[in-house]
């Protein structure tokens, strides 16, 4: 039910962090993986690590803000592997700039990467999947889009809230074509950024998590695999919370 053998996944922002963990999780489930990232060297390094473990993958440079570049990358993935069965829109710009200090350029760039880039990914992959009559799209949202927090900027929160709405729109538009579209909303996942926080800040975050620990990147990857696998075939338009109980609903 969770095997992805014979399928190809395309992951944006896959050069490091959560994106690299998602790419690894999909590869370990049997998928061939396209690792796309604005940092071409990071994408190449992550792909090399997967190849060393015996997985099939392709690294591509991609700025998700550029629709034509996104189209070219998806076409290159299709040329290489024959099809793209799974699209994971993970690329994001994170910012904690205070509300009153966000200038117009920063607002626009966060929206361009987080929301517009995911819109391009959903639409470009959605057209390809619609023509094939099947496919899975998974968008990486955030608890920031559901609950106000001083830890993330208003522009980041707004982009992630918009991504949840975008997920529902594409789920409705693609459901008759055999394509599911879902979102995952993580919170406080272990990362270099989190590890670099002062101990008192980490403790403050922990105090707000009923399970009493931070999430791990591989747990987010497992959720992506679930939604992309046969086990998740009857789920669409949903947002899956991964927050240790920080937000219960």
Topology summary:
Layout: E1 8-12, H1 17-28, E2 32-37, H2 40-52, E3 57-61, H3 67-81, E4 86-89, H4 104-132, E5 135-140, H5 154-174, E6 179-186, H6 192-195, H7 199-207, H8 217-228, E7 239-242
Parallel strand pairs: 1-2, 1-4, 2-3, 4-5, 5-6, 6-7
Helix pairs in contact: 1-8, 3-4, 4-5
Can you name the CATH architecture?
3-Layer(aba) Sandwich
CATH class: Alpha Beta
Residue runs with pLDDT of under 50 for 5 or more positions: none
- Which sheet architecture does the biggest sheet show? 7 strands, parallel
Order of helices and strands: EHEHEHEHEHEHHHE
Count of distinct strands: 7
What is the topology, as strand order, of the major beta sheet? 3-2-1-4-5-6-7
Per the CATH scheme, the topology name is Rossmann fold
Distance between the termini: 27 Å
Given the helix and strand composition, which structural class is it?
alpha/beta
- Beta-strand level of the residues, as a percent range? 15-25%
The total count of helices amounts to 8
Describe the global form.
Answer: globular
Determine Rg (CA atoms, Å). 17 Å
Q: Residue-averaged pLDDT, rounded?
A: 96
Helical residues, percent: 40-55%
Number of domains: 1
Kindly report the name of the CATH homologous superfamily.
NAD(P)-binding Rossmann-like Domain
Structural write-up:
- The protein is globular and about 50 Å long.
- Helix 1 (17-28) links the parallel strand 1 (8-12) and strand 2 (32-37).
- The protein has helices spanning 17-28, 40-52, 67-81, 104-132, 154-174, 192-195, 199-207, 217-228, and strands spanning 8-12, 32-37, 57-61, 86-89, 135-140, 179-186, 239-242.
- The protein is of the alpha/beta class and 249 residues long.
- Helix 3 (67-81) packs parallel to helix 4 and helix 4 (104-132) packs parallel to helix 5.
- The chain has a single domain (8-242), classed as Rossmann fold.
- Strands 3-2-1-4-5-6-7 form a seven-stranded parallel beta sheet, with helices on both faces.
- 46% of the residues lie in helices and 15% in strands.
- It contains eight helices and seven strands, in the order βαβαβαβαβαβαααβ.
């Amino acid at each position: 039910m969770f095997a992805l053998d014979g399928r190809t996944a395309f992951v944006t922002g896959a050069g490091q962090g959560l994106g690299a963990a998602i790419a690894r999780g999909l590869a370990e489930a049997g998928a061939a993986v396209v690792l796309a990232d604005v940092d071409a060297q990071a994408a190449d390094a992550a792909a090399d690590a997967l190849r060393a473990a015996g997985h099939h993958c392709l690294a591509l440079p991609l700025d998700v803000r550029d629709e034509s570049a996104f189209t070219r990358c998806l076409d290159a993935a299709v040329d290489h592997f024959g099809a793209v069965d799974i699209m994971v829109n993970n690329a994001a710009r994170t910012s904690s700039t205070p509300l009153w200090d966000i200038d117009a350029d920063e607002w626009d760039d966060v929206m361009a990467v987080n929301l517009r880039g995911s819109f391009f990914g959903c639409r470009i992959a959605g057209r390809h999947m619609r023509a094939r009559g099947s496919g899975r799209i998974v968008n990486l949202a955030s608890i920031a889009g559901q609950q106000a927090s001083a830890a993330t900027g208003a522009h980041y929160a707004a982009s992630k809230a918009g991504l949840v709405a975008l997920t529902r729109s594409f789920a409705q538009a693609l459901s008759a074509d055999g394509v599911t579209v879902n979102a995952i909303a993580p919170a406080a996942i272990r990362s270099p950024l989190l590890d670099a926080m002062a101990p008192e800040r980490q403790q403050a975050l922990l105090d707000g998590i009923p399970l009493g620990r931070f999430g791990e990147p591989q747990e987010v990857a497992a959720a992506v695999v679930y939604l992309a696998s046969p086990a998740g075939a009857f789920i669409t338009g949903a947002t899956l919370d991964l927050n240790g109980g920080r937000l219960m609903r």
